[in-house]
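ok so I'm stuck.
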Amino acid sequence: MTLGEFIIHTYCFVDDFLQCSFSSPFKKRGEKPALSDAEVLTMEIISEHLGRGSE
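replied:
not stuck anymore, here's the structure
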């Protein structure tokens, strides 16, 4: 599995998990975020997997 495929599989898993876990989206004020929760969590998981876990 290539890194690109791993990122896509991880994103799909995280997105499906978040949709199943939370029945209704949280209501937030202000501007719409540039990235979705699934995208941010995927980046964190991939960076930890690659050993770049520092913030």
